[in-house]
Design a protein that fits this description.
two-stranded antiparallel sheet, single chain, elongated, alpha+beta, about 45% helix
């Protein structure tokens, strides 16, 4: 695997995991938001990923010689969508709340802080792992240059 390809794959993962951390942070910040600009309570968001394939990039030349279609090892990851979970709502009886309905219930986002923090830890570890890959790749490239000079 080439150095540039390795860096491109890690960079795509860094971008995707950073967006995932931003979405998780938004979920945590809005865990008690009962009213949004769109109306109703905040809806939990999730990031969906998909592999980036060399064939999709028009880079069939990056594949091993004679590789049949469908054996693409992948060229990184991309975010395909940020979805909203409209079903994740919990009703709390609080007739004095300004957003209470006629029966006295307030709709809150059903965001589990433990799940969000676990997802944040996973995204953070993935980010750190890709930083490590980039640093190791850079060190190997520098070492190759030193060997080439000698």
């Amino acid at each position: 695997m080439g150095i540039i390809r390795t860096l491109r794959i890690s960079a795509s993962a860094l971008t995707a995991q950073r967006l995932r951390m931003d979405v998780i942070a938004s979920n945590l910040a809005n865990a008690e938001t009962t009213r949004t600009a769109e109306g109703g309570p905040y809806q939990r968001r999730r990031v969906e990923f998909a592999p980036v394939l060399a064939e999709q990039l028009g880079m069939r030349a990056l594949l091993p010689a004679g590789a049949p279609p469908g054996t693409d090892p992948g060229q990184g990851v991309r975010v395909t969508a940020i979805t909203r979970d409209s079903a994740a709502v919990r009703a709390v009886y609080d007739p004095n709340h300004p957003d209470a309905n006629a029966e006295g219930y307030v709709l809150f986002p059903d965001i589990d802080v433990v799940t969000e923090m676990t997802d944040m830890l996973s995204a953070s570890r993935s980010y750190e792992a890709n930083v490590t890959v980039m640093n190791a790749t850079k060190a190997m490239a520098l070492k190759a240059l030193e060997i080439g000079r000698g």
